[in-house]
Write a structure and sequence with these properties.
By secondary structure, this protein is of the alpha+beta class. It has 20 helices and 39 strands. The relative contact order is 0.06.
Length: about 800
């Protein structure tokens, strides 16, 4: 939304401020100014001059010498303009002045400085200007010649400020209007905001219904078939239309808004649209068949030629303006070629209507045609504004002598929009905003906003054009923005004191992340969409349940066509990429979901399970990864009775270097070395190790309870045992026997030696443990320890384990 400051000052006449002050104050009060442009920024020392005498240049066929009266003196100017004549009043740049650009319409930052000099030996003390040199164009000054200097009307006084005569002593402000403030998509709306912001009186144009002849109902009737899409339709008739240029003041205001003046009728509709924010349309009454307007939905497949000459294909969701025989306009968007105003128009139909904003937006999109009118209608206009706008337009028609307005107005308005009332609570405002104003201090802002306050009922009546004021919080905002956001004191939030922290689930994930980073792993993020070919690369059997996936109905391609059911592919792909780029000792981890369908075909949302996946190659081995896993489990309170099952049965892991991670008979995950064939499938010619922990089990079993254990008061007794056993028996079996048979005085045990060699028979290994005993209430004796040790040794012998001396 762009508005010239001069137009705002026409309705707020006491407004006195600089451009920057206006921009800052409006922005602080809620009407954000994106910026502004001074129309005369690069123009200086330009006056109205009158050509008194013209002589030919003695040394140039295309130059003439002009004697120009500038009010205080007569100066000589040499020019090559083809349209100069004696007696003309023209803009003259004096010595030391500036123009905005060249005659070709190009603009120069900072302008072009004009100095007196000589042209072909003849002194020239200034320059006559074209409209392009003054920073504008013939689009906005249609009376300017196509090639030559600009010529003023004879009524303009010689010596006057030419920039002021042209209306260029002005500033155009650009606003960012939010969609809920549709009232500010108008000059009057911005003027209301300016008046309230600067505490100045608002003086809007006095609009009255005009019309002295006939009865409009004798000329036109209106039928609205869809009141939901067209809640109001107003129509007036103008007879004896006279097409002519609009007055200069109107042309200047439209030009400042970026609208090209055309003629009085078109300019009036555009002027009222900018002033009131209400789009209007004019039809040639002689083209309206049956003198009847019908507002109806279009038919599917119907076609219509709009004013731009394009044939549009319509459907039943689009609203049309029709006469008794045909469509004459695409409602709220553009009129039809078959009813446009031409220079031969005699009688005219004026339309000011209100249409459903959502429907207009969708219709404009389907038609591929977005106009200034549709841009305003799609915001949702106030239907009560239509009558004032059409009366304003008809008033201007009579004032400008553009026609004779017929008395009366056809107004189809089945359900009038009423003003809203809101209960006022001063305490609520103070508590919400955080300041301490009295009720009287608050309500003093209401008159400028046209809010009516009833002190007895403590209610506020909101005008219909303020569609954004719905509840008390909106009223509080109005008070706050005009009190001044910069004046609101700093306060602490009220309410119960709370301490922010991560949720239980996020705390566990943060621990996983911290442990991985501490151990040298870098976090990665991989795609949840994968290719079915991944299962073959991971050597999964054809009947594996992991091949049952959620399939994407509109995939980007086969490589992203399913949701992953295991998380290894992403990590292995990343490791392979790093390996092939010759990065050494790469460690990666990921916290990401897998998606396990509950049934095939999929009938409900899958089970999304967070997986903590780690992978590395380079320095380290199986036990390196085991240490990282145990560190994580310890940090989340799972640090006792963790066992490993070497018979994990993962086809993508090395058959002799893999294990399930078990806690309380629950498999928390697995770890191991990647199968050599899988490494080859990923083009990774090195050993790689992975671990995957199923986080939902961790959420369930983790504990942040810490129990304090005092320092031992009594000494410990340590015993070492050494044994020979078959290689296929895991040491975990030995540890299980120690735990079961050692009794309550067992404090700890540790494996300190494993040996295979010449002194041990083939197929066997030597294993040695250190076992520590300690009692909490007394000093242990050798008999106490020996009894426990004998139970352990006996159980070991029964399992086929031989004790060494």
């Amino acid at each position: 939304m762009n508005t010239p400051l001069s137009w705002i000052k026409a309705y707020v006449p006491d407004l006195e401020c600089t451009d920057q002050e206006f921009m800052d104050a409006m922005t602080l009060s809620g009407t954000k100014c994106e910026g502004y442009e001074r129309l005369d920024a690069d123009l200086d020392k330009i006056v109205v001059g009158q050509i008194k005498k013209i002589e030919r240049h003695p040394d140039a066929d295309k130059l003439v010498i002009c004697q120009v009266d500038i009010g205080t003196e007569t100066i000589q100017i040499v020019t090559g303009a083809p349209n100069v004549e004696e007696g003309q009043k023209i803009p003259v740049v004096l010595d030391g002045g500036r123009v905005a650009g060249g005659h070709d319409g190009s603009k120069t930052p900072g302008g072009i400085k004009i100095k007196k000099g000589k042209l072909r030996g003849i002194e020239s003390n200034g320059m006559m200007c074209s409209i392009e040199e003054l920073g504008s164009s013939r689009d906005f000054y249609p009376d300017a010649p196509e090639n030559g200097i600009y010529v003023f009307d004879d009524s303009v006084p010689v010596g006057a400020d030419a920039i002021e005569v042209l209306g260029l002593h002005d500033t155009v402000f650009e606003y960012e209007i939010t969609s809920n403030r549709v009232d500010c998509y108008s000059v009057i709306g911005i003027a209301r905001e300016a008046a309230a912001t600067f505490r100045k009186p608002l003086k809007l144009p006095q609009v009255k219904e005009v019309g002295t002849t006939g009865d409009v109902n004798d000329y036109i009737s209106v039928e609205v078939q869809d009141a939901q899409l067209c809640p109001r339709y107003c129509a007036k008739v103008v007879k004896n239309v006279k097409i002519a240029p609009s007055p200069e003041w109107m042309q200047r205001r439209l030009a400042a808004c970026g609208i090209r003046p055309i003629n009085n009728l078109v300019d009036i509709t555009n002027y009222v649209m900018e002033e009131y924010g209400q789009p209007m349309h004019a039809y040639d009454l002689s083209t309206i068949a049956g003198n009847k307007i019908i507002v109806r939905r279009a038919k599917d497949g119907e076609t219509f030629q709009t004013l731009d000459g394009t044939e549009r294909k319509l459907d039943s969701d689009m609203l049309m303006i029709c006469d008794g025989e045909k469509a004459v306009g695409l409602a709220g968007i553009m009129g039809g070629e078959n009813s446009k105003i031409t220079d031969d128009v005699k009688d005219m139909l004026f339309e000011a209507a209100c249409f459903d904003g959502t429907n207009i937006r969708l219709s404009a999109k389907r038609a591929g045609l977005r106009t200034d009118a549709s841009g305003k209608f799609e915001k949702g206009l106030d239907p009560n504004n239509a009558e004032a706008a059409i009366n304003r337009a008809c008033q201007l028609i009579e004032e400008l002598g553009a026609g004779e307005v017929v008395s009366g107005m056809v107004d189809v308005y089945p359900k009038k929009k009423e003003e809203r009332t809101i209960s006022f609570d001063a305490d609520y405002v103070n508590n919400l905003i955080g300041f301490h104003l009295t009720e009287e201090e608050m309500i003093k802002y209401f008159p400028a906003l046209e809010l009516k306050y009833d002190a007895q009922t403590k209610t506020i009546t909101v005008p219909t054009f303020r569609q954004d004021l719905i509840a008390m919080c909106d009223i509080a905002e109005e008070i706050a923005r005009f009190y001044g956001y910069d004046n609101i004191p700093t306060t602490l939030p009220s309410g119960e004191a709370t301490s922010g922290k991560l949720s239980y689930k996020l705390r566990i994930e943060e621990i996983a992340r911290s442990v991985a980073l501490y151990c040298g792993f870098s976090q990665g993020m991989t795609y949840s969409f994968e290719s079915p070919k991944v299962f073959d690369k991971l050597l999964l059997p054809k009947d594996s349940t992991l091949r049952n996936t959620v399939t994407i109905s509109n995939p980007l391609g086969e490589d992203f066509s399913i949701m992953r059911t295991l998380s290894l592919n992403g990590i292995l792909t990343s490791l392979a990429t790093n390996f092939n780029r010759r990065n050494k000792d790469v460690k990666l981890f990921e916290l990401g979901n897998i998606y396990i369908p509950k049934a095939i075909p999929v009938t409900e949302l899958p089970d999304e399970r967070m997986q903590f996946t780690l992978g590395f190659y380079g320095e380290g081995d199986f036990f390196t990864m085991k240490g990282v896993v145990e560190e994580f489990l310890s940090q989340v309170g799972i640090d006792e009775k963790i066992t490993y099952d070497a018979k994990a049965g993962k086809p993508y892991l090395h058959p002799g270097r893999q294990a399930n991670i078990i806690y309380r008979d629950t498999v928390l995950g697995y770890l191991g070395e990647v199968h050599p064939q899988v490494c080859e499938n990923y083009d990774m010619k090195t050993r790689a190790y992975v671990a995957v922990i199923d986080m939902p089990y961790i959420y369930e079993m983790a504990s942040f309870d810490k129990k304090y254990k005092g320092i031992a008061k009594f000494p410990a007794i340590s015993r070492d045992i050494s044994m020979v056993m078959p290689k296929e028996i895991p040491v975990g079996q030995v540890e299980k026997i120690i735990e079961q048979k050692a009794g309550k005085n067992l404090e700890s045990y540790a494996l300190f030696d494993i040996y295979e060699g010449d002194q041990i028979k083939e197929g066997y290994k030597s294993v040695a443990y250190s076992i520590v005993f300690r009692a909490k209430d007394r000093t242990l004796e050798d008999n106490d320890v020996q009894a426990s040790l004998n139970k352990i040794l006996k159980a070991l012998e029964e399992t086929g384990i031989e004790l060494r001396g």
